[in-house]
Inverse folding.
């Protein structure tokens, strides 16, 4: 949950096959920065952020029920990874593993200082429990206060990491959602404004690209930021803005179109531990 102090980052063993350009590029950049990385063997899809346990401190992980509603057809059920079947998982998960009795995606858990921001989709996937029960279970598991933002039901995943990124000092960076849905943007920004200083990415281009949301889904490792690049005019503007907002970080662009076409970006395809 605290990627700024991560000691290693892992990817699905399917990533080199499914996204070869992305994997080759990010592996090369990680190597240059002397950041340890590895592959998780025996995974079923590339989105390891969604199914891997969530680390709450150096020796504690939360394992949840990864059974998202969008993977419940026979075709997609075969892409659900059994975390306990991943090779050497016991070695990687050093310390205590807490099992959370909730259906959840790791992409819907963004640690923001002493809080966690999630979309309300978690309510819809756990209808056997009340909202009070769900909040209580989450706060007990993560040992932090939970802030819920609305779920944009036009976006089936319902992941908060496709909307926001915590950048420290009680600041949240949010994607250019106003280009897609101004009403939803105003709803969730209004909630976040009560707790954080909110900064919105924006792009000065003739025609807004539908994939420009993806820059928010960058990967932070120590003082290095790996930012998706999509081959569109917004690329340079995203790098420039993030560099200005976070001047003490090294910002590196990584070609990520292979993943973004599939619905995610660099945070989605990675799992970092400390």
């Amino acid at each position: 949950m605290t990627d700024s102090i991560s000691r290693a980052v892992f990817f699905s063993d399917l990533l080199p096959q499914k996204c070869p350009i992305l994997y080759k590029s990010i592996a090369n950049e990680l190597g240059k920065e002397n950041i340890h990385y590895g592959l998780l063997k025996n995974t079923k899809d590339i989105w390891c952020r969604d199914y891997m346990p969530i680390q709450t401190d150096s020796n504690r992980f939360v394992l949840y029920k990864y059974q998202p509603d969008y993977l419940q057809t026979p075709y997609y059920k075969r892409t659900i990874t059994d975390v306990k079947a991943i090779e050497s998982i016991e070695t990687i998960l050093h310390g205590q593993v807490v099992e959370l009795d909730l259906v959840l995606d790791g992409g819907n858990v963004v640690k923001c200082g002493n809080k966690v921001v999630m979309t309300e989709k978690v309510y819809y996937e756990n209808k056997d429990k009340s909202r009070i029960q769900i909040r209580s279970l989450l706060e007990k598991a993560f040992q932090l206060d939970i802030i819920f933002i609305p779920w944009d039901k036009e976006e089936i995943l319902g992941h908060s990491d496709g909307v926001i990124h915590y950048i420290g000092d009680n600041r949240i960076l949010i994607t250019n959602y106003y280009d897609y849905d101004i009403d939803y943007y105003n709803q969730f920004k209004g909630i976040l404004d009560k707790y954080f200083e909110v900064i919105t990415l924006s792009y000065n281009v003739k025609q807004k690209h539908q994939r420009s949301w993806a820059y928010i889904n960058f990967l932070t490792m120590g003082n290095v930021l790996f930012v998706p690049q999509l081959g569109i005019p917004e690329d340079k503007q995203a790098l420039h803005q993030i560099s200005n907002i976070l001047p003490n970080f090294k910002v590196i662009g990584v070609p990520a179109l292979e993943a973004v076409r599939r619905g995610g970006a660099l945070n989605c395809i990675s799992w970092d531990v400390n």
About this structure: The chain has one domain: 3-273.
